[in-house]
Amino acid sequence: MADTPYSNFDSSTSDYPDFTPTQALQTQYGQHNTVIVEQQEQEDLAKPYMDMVELIGKMRSSGIDNGQAIEILGAYHHQEYPWKRNFYTPSLVSIGPKYSKEVDQVKDKEYKNLYMKSFLERAVGQSVEEYREYLRNEMKLLDKARNYYKEIGITYPHNDEELVDMLLLDGCFVVEFVMKCKEGGNGDPRRSVEGKKAREDMLLFENQLSFDVLSAIYKKMTASHTEEVPSFIRLVKFSFASLAPNFTFHNFYDDNLPENPMNLLHVVHSLCVPNVNSHRIEVREAEGDIDDVTNKWLTLNHINTATELQEVGVGFKNTGEIFTMPKEYAKIPAKLKANKEPNGISLFDITFSSGEMRIPCFKVDNSTELFFRNMIALEQQSCQVNPKYYTDYARLMSHLVKGNKDITFLRKNGTIHNLLGEDGKVAYMFNNLSVEIDTSNNFYFASVYTAVNGLCRNRRHVWKQKLKKFFFVLWKVVYITLSAISLLLLAIQEYTNST
Fold this sequence. Notes:
8% strand; 3 domains; elongated; disordered N terminus; three-stranded mixed beta sheet; four-stranded antiparallel beta sheet
């Protein structure tokens, strides 16, 4: 068999002979909008010291908006953008065929070989060739892998042996990675610089393997284990939970969430989704038909910022809590393992009632934008992922936080835990997440927009708030004036007594 990037795990670095990777990240939203972010040319990637702004300027993208072609640059060309990074291309580890030629192939292979060696030590009595045969013959895994890449528009190796080698090396790497995360300790990849880079790389939309392949490898590796082993879905959630802005432990322990997972990214996506659509049920009861609310959304597709809403009397309250996943799987407290209430507050459980908006608290750190952008890409590409939680959430936040003062208000309110430092960085991130991405007709927060705009257009309410503000200011003026008069009289009295 000829050498390929995956055939000889410790030596070969040659390219796929019959394989040309796709040149675009194509994300489709509904039937109308497609956003494509082209790869940088190979010669650009070979210039590590080139100013990143110039590289970003070459990342042209095009799409379709209401049937017309559009040309977009995206958010990355902005000279003041605080993170000059590529949110879709791996920096260390390629998973699958898309970026196998784009990363440093020597470092990529060396890193994967270390994990392959560790994997085979864990899979006692099993050999590389045994896994090759397993992938060739078990449960039509090759067909599932081909179908997966066809669905997301990625060219894959057409030669069966090359495809098997790719699935084997990359699949064993992913399985061993999450196993090391489960064990914790000094071998935990999350503790090293390379491991942190690899973990982010594994969340990129086009840097994925079919989840059926990953599950099959894990199943075979653990088949001889006498002790009970956790599900692979749960191990994936555990390994990546700390990158999520927030998550619920109910979702962590639900091994049936998501149904029919497509890839690792899809599994991590399920950590934050609501357990029940509680606010939508309330809308049905209050307004009769959810379609009516959806139709209203078509004409009410904007809300005021957080500080503007506060000025007209809208209250803000943070809800829920931000969970911190223990570093070691075995150290998850027993009380959390028993916490399976179906009504836990998720990241997307934003509600509005009685003039108060309730927003679950969440963190923002260096990984948040990469996390959001690739979750949005997943939602746009796949019809299987509905509602489009992250896409619609990004749109909502881009309306609520237009500037620094909005982020500062929500940070002081306890809603946003800003780990980036400057509030302006968070505002800039949210204002650029939804650039050139259309929201769907089935906007998840339509009921919130409808209720908020209804309150803001209620003249009686607006005038009531203006009068309250007027009398509050008037009272402050009167209070300051009386205090000044009192001090003046006191000074006169003291002067009189002294003379």
